[in-house]
Amino acid sequence: MTTTITLPAPVPACRALGCTPAGAQDLATDLRAVAVAVKNVQGWATSVAAPEWEGDTAEAHDHAATRFAVRLDAGEAALDRAVTAADRFEERLADLFDRREEINEDRAEVNEAIDTLRTEIAAATDDSRLEEFQRRAERLTTRAEALQVRIDTWGSDEDDAEADFIAALQAVDSVAEGEQAAADPDRPDVPALTGRLRGLLGDPVALGAWWRTLSRAEQEALTTEHPELVGNADGLPITDRDEANRGALGRDIDYYTQRKEDGQLTGAEKRILENATYVRDALDEYRDRYDPDTGAALTNLIVYHPAMHSGDGGVAISFGNPDTADHVSVNVPGLTTETSSTSGNLAKTLALHQAALAEEQGSVASVYWADYDAPSGNPLNPFDPLGQLDFGGVALTDKAEAGGERFADFIDGIRASDQGAPAHLTAIGHSYGSTTVGHALQDGLPVDDAVLIGSPGQPTPTAAELTDADVWVGSMDHDPVTLLGTGDRGGIGALGHDPADVDFGGTRFATGDGELRVEKLLDNHSSYFKGTSLDNMAHIVTGNDGEVTQQPPRGADGGEYLTLPELLTAATGASAGHALIEAGTWLWEHSRWGAIL
């Protein structure tokens, strides 16, 4: 009777290259960045190949530039094939990763059953269960043998994937092979593909459907030729947008860093380099984090606009893949949002992501979206009048309205690229970002839930007029920004209605009130991604509504609160009293009697 079968775990992918899906993804990203840079140089060489002057010098210049462009074209063709091969290799490794997880789960189950049978056999005192033991042993042997076949097949498939990738790289590792690739009649027609891509921008459903008809080689050729188009095209798969944007990011950092070293960097280019560096550094903070379900990198760079929004830049980064997650949340920040604030805001988004994962309600993706011209600048800097003017936009709705349109386009793209059953989608707006989300909701934003935290106002007096989605409101009574909206007890109302007011009709969830001290009021405003407030948002974004703790809306029975002038007065008094206590404590501790006692 064979009852001692044990099975080894499959070896990690891959043997010779020592890589993982994330490692192959990094390699493809690096190759893609090189291809993007080479195509930029080739484009420049082509543009200068026909000088405006005439004569022998012009002909010589044209001949040299044209030859240079042709030689670069061979490099482009070789790099495009290498990038395509690396991308396919990453996909095969991801599939191997999934299969390996399934095999290991089955292996653990079989070995546990074997151990159980061994224990029972050892404890048996007679032969009464011999036939039962024999039948169970035979079944386990059959399962073990089938599992061993799966392990052997897995190892063979891993070897094939690695061999195919190495062969693909070796096929374009010489100048002659690059020239042969460039002359291939089946080489993607990038100009024609580019025209079609541009024509479909703005229609995410049609764009996504067309993209799926392209070969991987065509997709990669477009990505390396126009990474800024592919990376920011709503409706394309998130992973493809990430690949394109990372290629553009690498190109920008290399190009503008060189211009800086050469002393040629303009003021506008300096902002682009700074924004690119902020994005790179923010991504690098999570470089070693991987999606536990796929083995791919945890972060995806979904939007990359380093030169937009008055130089502030635009960016969107996700933890997890919104295309495949069961629950997707998109976080829109508010006042003073710039690309320079990416790292801090990503930390808040990660906190929500981890809290949502802890709910164990399915897979989760959490997106940080900052691709609008939020009011920013320093109102106290007398040497920056443009910054003061920009900051003053917080009292107006025009940036929220324009941002709402951009946000709606982004969400339409998320819906269009979703794979499988539609994800449970939640829009979260903080501060001025909540007003931005509100304007998008008013125009029919296709989300299931809307979370408005620290909101200075909404464009409609009721939640029912705002959206068909469920509206949740997080509003600390000691957060002065949330007292700016109009309601039963006043408010400036420059940005609209207070969503925490009883007449608005949203569901107000518990956040705590925050500290009643004037120096802590703005800290209250930035504290929604902590404690009870964070827990409740995690319940909401995973559809776990029954666990959400609530508090009465303003104006309801038991929902008493201070108006903005009352809050400022009370907080000032509390701070003064706290300062007196601290001063008295210090004097006592440093006095003779305090020292003695």
TrEMBL record:
InterPro entries: AB_hydrolase_fold (IPR029058), DUF1023 (IPR010427). It holds the Pfam family Abhydrolase_8. SUPFAM superfamilies: alpha/beta-Hydrolases (SSF53474). One of its GO terms (molecular function) is hydrolase activity. The keyword Hydrolase applies. Residues 313-482 form the DUF1023 domain. Residues 79-150 form a coiled coil. Keywords: Coiled coil, Hydrolase. This is Alpha/beta hydrolase. It comes from Nocardioides humi.
